[in-house]
Design a protein that fits this description.
This protein is α+β, with helices and mostly antiparallel strands and 359 residues long. It has a domain of 91 residues: conserved putative lor/sdh protein from methanococcus maripaludis s2 fold, CATH 2.40.420.20. The strands form 3 sheets. Strands 2-9-12-11-10-13 form a 6-stranded antiparallel β-barrel. Strands 6-5-3-8 form a 4-stranded antiparallel sheet, with no helix packed on it. Strands 18-1-19 form a 3-stranded mixed sheet, with no helix packed on it. The radius of gyration is 50 Å and the shape is elongated. 20% of the residues are buried.
């Protein structure tokens, strides 16, 4: 049997074991706290080190980029451009419009009486003399005596077009046939006022039908504009002895106006902004921005009114990349070619001899 002394001894042992266990737990807890604190400080130091490195890297990158941009700008070469040499040249404004060609002498022939066309004496395209019978009209009606009325040509020329066939009923109001003398053709030209007032009797005129051109001569210039359209009229004539051009054909008429010395430039040479028009003149390897005044010459060319002089070298291609004082390298110097004006001799048809009217 256990005595009281044994029980007391066991109680002391248990108390000691409990104290030792508590001390062990306390020591373990403290060790854990120390370990966590040490890890936290180590992590903060690592993060700070990384932050410093990233800051240095970022600053270095910015510096490198800035240095690179500066280096690129410093190493950038002159702008490559094409230029044109400004020259004075004799040139004309060109006016074009469509016109209808008619014979210098032509007329519609009407029947003298109402009736039926019984006979056509001259076919289309054949020559006819003044006074020669063209067709006959039968004016027979119930209760009336048969009567065939001949109708003759009032002029010598050629039968241009029949408007009827044999058997057609006609009246005195119907144009039966067109007779035309087309050895010489005329055309009435109507122009806007700004072009019409520049026309002179010696102005050059070219009439074009498809790929064929012929020179024409101005016969008259109206002294008053049309009340309706406000356009001015002039009449021209052209030789057509070979009958290549036909009466009634719609042609293009081109006129040379205001022929004089001009300073011309390609339209691509100008830079136009809200501050006006300017061009870049090349001097000593640099571009100098020059304000200019201009007027349109044609779709691709402008006339310089002020700002540039003859023999100036002006940028024609590449002006968009320039500023005043920019360095340039000229890739090609072009002599400005005179725009095509006037008659193209290679396209002018040489009229051949033909039969005389009425033979």
């Amino acid at each position: 049997m256990k005595t009281s002394s044994d029980t007391l001894e066991q109680s002391k042992i248990c108390t000691r074991l409990a104290e030792m266990a508590a001390r062990a737990v306390t020591f373990s807890f403290l060790a854990s706290l120390l370990f966590v604190s040490a890890c936290t400080k180590s992590g903060e130091a690592t993060e700070q080190g990384r932050g410093k490195e990233e800051t240095k890297s970022t600053q270095s990158g910015k510096f490198e980029k800035s240095s690179g941009a500066a280096g690129t700008r410093g190493k950038r070469g002159p702008a490559v451009v094409q230029t044109v040499l400004v020259k004075k040249q004799r040139a004309s404004q060109r006016a074009e419009t469509s016109v209808a060609l008619v014979g210098r002498k032509q007329t519609n022939v009407f029947s003298k009486v109402s009736g039926r066309v019984t006979r056509i004496s001259v076919p289309e395209g054949r020559a006819v003399k003044a006074g020669q019978t063209l067709f006959q009209v039968d004016r027979s009606e119930p209760g009336e005596t048969y009567l065939s009325v001949p109708v003759t040509s009032p002029i010598s020329g050629w039968v241009g077009r029949w408007n009827v066939t044999e058997g057609t009923q006609v009246s005195t109001q119907d144009a039966v046939v067109l007779v035309v003398d087309d050895q010489t053709l005329i055309a009435n030209i109507f122009l806007p006022v700004q072009e019409w007032v520049q026309v002179k009797l010696n102005s050059k005129v070219v009439i074009r039908v498809q790929d064929l051109e012929r020179p024409a001569k101005i016969l008259t210039i109206a002294r008053a504009a049309e009340s309706g359209s406000g356009r001015g009229a002039l009449t021209v004539e052209l030789s057509n002895s070979d009958h290549v051009f036909k009466s009634g054909v719609v042609a293009m008429a081109a006129l040379e106006l205001d022929t004089r010395e001009r300073l011309l430039l390609p339209a691509s040479s100008l830079r136009i902004s809200d501050q006006g028009a300017a061009a870049f003149k090349v001097e000593n390897g640099k571009a100098a921005r020059v304000k200019v005044k201009y007027s349109l010459f044609d779709n691709d060319t402008v006339e310089i009114l002020s700002g540039l002089q003859e023999n100036d070298v002006v940028v024609s291609v590449g002006a968009h990349q320039l500023f005043d004082g920019a360095e340039v390298k000229v890739a090609e110097v072009q002599d400005l070619l005179k725009p095509s004006r006037g008659i193209n001799e290679s396209r002018i048809n040489k009229p051949a001899r033909s039969e005389e009217a009425g033979k």
